[in-house]
Amino acid sequence: MPSPAPPPTPTNPADAPGAVPPTGGVPPEDAGPAASPDPRSAADDLADGIDLMLRAARKALQAVDPRIEAAAAQAVTRLQELDSQVLESARQGLEAEHQKLEELATEMGRDIAALVKRVAERIDTNFRQAP
Fold first, then answer.
1. For residue 36, what pLDDT band results from cuts at 50, 70 and 90?
2. 130 CA to centre of own chain
3. Given 12, 18, 44, 75, which is the most exposed site by the fewest CB atoms within 10 A?
4. What are the residue boundaries of the structural domains of the chain, listed by start?
C-alpha cells in the first residue's frame, strides 16, 4: 500500500504551520484580520464602546438613569462631530499640499523646458560650425 503524500509546502510564510500573522503591535487575540485593514475611525470605536457599556449596564441593572443615557448620547454626538471636523481639516490640509505640489511641478516643468532649450541651442551651435 503506498504511503500518503506529504502535505504541500506553503508558499506564503504566513501560511506555515505555527506561523503568527503580523498584528501591528496588538496582541493576536485582540487583533483584527491581518489581510484587511480596518477603515473605521477611533471615534467610531469609542462610540461602539460607549454603546457596549450602556448595554452591559442595562443588562446588569435592568435600567439605567436617564441622565447617564443622555450623557452617553451627547458623548457619541460629540465624538461624531469631532471625527467630521478632523476629516474636514485633513481634507483642507491635503488640498493645500496638492496646490503646492502643482505649483512646484509647474515651476520644475518651466525649468526643465528652459534647460532643454539651452542644451539644444548649444548642440545646434557646436554642430553648425564648419570644421
1. low
2. 62
3. 18
4. 40-122
